[in-house]
Specification:
Growth Hormone, Chain: A, 80% helix, 14 helices, mainly alpha, single chain, 389 residues, globular
Length: 389
């Protein structure tokens, strides 16, 4: 494929970014179904398990704005590369851990890596595509993430069951290396800017006071709450009703597959339906499905509800990123995306601790239900903030 744009608008660079982000999300998600049990075998309680998510999110919260500013100045690719190096090192670090406390610095580096990779990858894809084909490119990016997230948990769950968690960690590191090598071939134009340019005339306060950014931020807070509840405590709930690691992994695979299927059409649909409406719909459907699966004990039913939740997650994730990207100028798009991410990061700090405490007192089932109900109460605020400019 040549660099020139073909009829569909898919260029060599877009294909390479799609492959890189596929490998990156596969690397990240390979560990998800096995990490809770792995940490518990090291001696971590449910409360400590929740705190691992908090330290990763705290790292992203503290670094979001400076990394966003650096991204606006130096370019998206230069920010992604060190993140992918960490995606190689983090799973190898798990193999060296022998105590619950050893996992804290590893999760801090994981938080930094996630903060460097995924938002910058979306912006890189946005800026490499032409305006008339941008929604397709954005949908392709989210689809590539979804495919990676579909395959990763299945690989992680099966290899941990057949061999050991160490095998899953090695595979995760290998996928991270493949992502890094792929991204090296992507050509991005230089973005270095002088300090006195237009970028500085856009103040942080003006971005924080933008109702559209606030609406997206609150939505991201709620989505992060549900994501943390699902990834941290669905494996615990599944084990409590008799599912093994491969069955739990298959639930995440069904979720990832369903999420993947809708992302490309949702990217195109954002040209016809306001992204705000899609965000709200995705959050509501996601909350309802998490509540429903928390009352199910049959694998087929749980897998089905995980699949529908995956569709809802795909709707939200695609429309949320598009919403921020199209409502911010290229000169400060990285900063706007950082502010959007900060709400999710703040949620990731507070809510794993809250969810962990609820799980300690009431169990994993009530923890999932709490996340669902809280989200349903919060979507009204998202709509209220977003419906006015």
């Amino acid at each position: 494929m040549t660099k020139e744009t073909i009829e569909s608008g898919v260029t060599r660079e877009i294909v390479l970014v799609s492959l890189a982000i596929f490998f990156a999300d596969a690397s990240h998600s390979t560990v998800i179904p096995i990490f809770p049990a792995f940490a518990q075998r090291l001696g971590a309680s449910l409360g400590v398990l929740g705190s691992y998510g908090s330290v990763a999110a705290l790292t992203m919260l503290l670094l979001s704005l400076p990394l966003g500013r650096l991204s606006d100045r130096f370019g998206r690719k230069k920010m992604m590369l060190p993140g992918l190096v960490l995606f190689i090192l983090v799973p190898l670090g798990y193999m060296l851990a022998s105590s619950p406390i050893h996992l804290y610095p590893i999760r801090i580096f994981l938080g930094l890596a996630v903060g460097l990779i995924f938002s910058n990858g979306f912006l890189l894809m946005t800026e490499l595509s032409r305006e008339e084909n941008r929604s397709i490119a954005q949908g392709l990016y989210m689809t590539s993430m979804g495919i990676g997230f579909t395959i990763g948990p299945l690989i992680g769950g099966v290899t941990a069951k057949l061999y050991s968690p160490a095998t899953s960690f090695l595979i995760s590191a290998g996928l991270g290396a493949m992502s890094l090598l792929t991204l090296l071939f992507v050509k991005e134009s230089s973005r270095e800017r002088e300090e006195g340019n237009r970028r500085e005339r856009i103040t942080l306060s003006s971005i924080f006071m933008d109702r559209q950014v606030l609406a997206a931020g609150v939505a991201n807070y709620l989505n992060s709450l549900m994501f943390n509840a699902l990834t941290l405590f669905f494996p615990v709930y599944g084990a409590s009703v008799g599912f093994d690691e491969s069955e739990i992994g298959s639930g995440f695979t069904a979720r990832g597959l369903a999420s993947t299927v809708v992302r490309l059409p949702i990217g195109a649909l954002t040209q016809r339906i306001r992204a705000l409406y899609l965000m709200v719909f995705g959050l509501v459907l996601s909350a309802l499905m998490i509540f429903r699966l928390s009352t199910s004990v049959i694998l087929v039913a749980v897998t089905f509800f995980m699949g529908i939740q995956g569709i809802a997650y795909g709707i939200y994730l695609t429309s949320g990123n598009v919403y921020v990207a199209v409502n911010s100028d290229e000169d400060y798009r990285g900063t706007a995306m950082a502010v959007y991410s900060m709400f999710g990061n703040f949620s990731g700090i507070i809510n794993p601790l809250v969810l962990g405490l609820i799980a300690e007192k009431l169990g994993s089932q009530r923890t999932l239900q709490f996340a669902s109900v809280f989200t349903l109460l919060g979507v009204g605020l998202v709509y209220s903030l977003g419906r006015k400019k």
